[in-house]
Amino acid sequence: MSRRPGRGRGVIEEPKDRKKTLRRLLRYLRPYTLQLIIIFVLMMISSIAMVAGSYFIKPIINNYILPGDFRGLFRMLLLLGSIYLIGALFSYIYERWMLHISLKIIYGIRKELFEHMQKLPLRFFDRNTQGDLMSRYSNDIDNLNEALSSAFLSVVSSAVSFLGTLIAMLTLSPILFPLTLLTLAAMLYAGKFIGDKSKNAFRRQQKELGQLNGYIEEMMEGQKVVKVFNYEAKNVGAFSGFNEQLRLASVSAMTYGGAMMPTMMNLTTISYAMITLVGGLMTLAGRFDIGTLIAYLQYSRQVGGPIGRSTQQVNSIYSALAGAERVFHVLDEAPEIDEGKVHLVNVRLEDGKLIECVEACRLWAWKKDNGSGEAQLIPLKGDIRFHDVNFGYVEGTPVLKNISLFAKPGEKIAFVGSTGAGKTTITNLITRFYEFGSGKITYDGIDILDIAKDDLRRSFGVVLQDVHLFSGTIRDNIRYGNLHATDEEVEAAAKLANADKIGRAHV
After folding, report:
1. Mean pLDDT of the chain
2. What is the bridge-based pairing of β-strands 384-391 and 375-379?
């Protein structure tokens, strides 16, 4: 028993075309342009307020604390508290507002993706594994949601805070500023180095996780086969191998991922010590005042934070863009083409003539436009004929060659042959799950290419090789073939299938 390669991997990679993906993503944001502008303004005010608050340390110390003006100090503290309160309030408002917008966008994308998948041909689902498609709804859309709700805003907010902090530091002390720039250069280098290592490590972790999940999924689906051939021990060994690879990849990813903030904090501490030493000596020499030194030291503590936050969020944004690209790839898949103009309708028989019913009748007929503006009703009988049909799942590799056969109404026909002989393929062509290459298939004398696919498939009763039960009751599953079936009809169908006694307690 061999494992299908690539099953359910769901590997998160960098987007192949960032600009194209970002432009397409912006289309979903366009209806919220006004709200986004307001959010941006609130974010700017919040970021500036947080930066400006530290600048007030200088006048508070120099003008009020050292002279002993406690009344003035109280007023300044009230002003400073008001500034921080406004910043915190605006931050809460724009974050909540952006979260609301992002969830609406994600809701729309997830809905669009599911609706589009319902229109895709069966060939698409044969080419893509179940685990890989499920990762579009889970990993990819979750990553996109995280980026929309917080990562993008965090990067912009960090950039504003970083720029504002640099301006404030340069204003306070052009002499100490070069020391800050030296530390920032070290931070940027360390951030890029650790970020690249972290990105590769997390990519490997995602790959190993996808392989492990794919293996688990496959083994759960094939438990009967596993037990028949006594493969339990071998499967446990294979699982241990996948699990160990995931553990090693996770250790590497967590190591690099957890190193970012401590590195930034240590570099910030070194910068703080250097500035304290130089600034303290300058203060003792009369080149600096205490208020300026303390305010500058406060900014030196803050300046590394935006770099660390931005470095972490950039990886999240890359993952989100890669996930969006994978979602858009599915949305760009061509839907199933249906050019059929012949429809299945309810009819009744009056004076030997078929009349279309508005209400539910027991007879069915094909409604075909004969070209003169009048509809022709052709009784549904079930006459199927193949005329020199050729088909191959892969171009250049034929499965059926010049097949001609017929099934008259009321006949019972069995297809017998070895695996891969084309038995299931024939039924797939009748229902147009796949389109044949050449030849012709007729249904009650009508070319099936002229019949609308929904009506064509609605006219068949198909018992699939692999039984799939949907969540719900047995009654719900039996009714799946006819949602308008009454309880009596459902029970009659259960009796015909000898399922009435087994499922009586669950219908």
Report:
1. 84
2. unpaired
Is residue 378 a contact partner of residue 444, using CB atoms and an 8 Å limit? yes
pLDDT of residue 384: 93
**What are the DSSP calls for 473-501, one per residue?**
-HHHHHHTT-TT--HHHHHHHHHHTT-TT
List domains and CATH numbers for the chain: 18-331 (1.20.1560.10), 343-458 (3.40.50.300), 469-507 (no CATH)
Q: What is the CA radius of gyration of the chain?
A: 34
Question: 268-317, pLDDT tens digit by residue?
Answer: 888 888 888 988 888 888 888 898 888 888 888 888 777 767 766 777 78
Contact 386, 360 (CB under 8 A): no
Q: Is 352 left (phi over 0), alpha (psi -120 to 50) or beta?
A: left
28 with 105: CB under 8 angstroms?
yes
Q: Each residue of 416-462: pLDDT tens digit?
A: 887 777 888 888 899 898 888 889 999 999 999 999 998 998 888 77
pLDDT of residue 222: 84
Dist. CA 255–CA 266, nearest whole Å: 16
What's the rounded mean pLDDT across residues 40-59?
89
- Residues forming beta bridges with residue 375, ordered by sequence position: 369
SS3 at position 471: coil
Q: Contact 11/318 with Cβ under 8 angstroms?
A: no
- DSSP letter for 383, please: -
Alpha-carbon torsion 420, 435, 443, 483, what sign? positive
Q: 10 Å Cβ neighbour count for 327?
A: 23
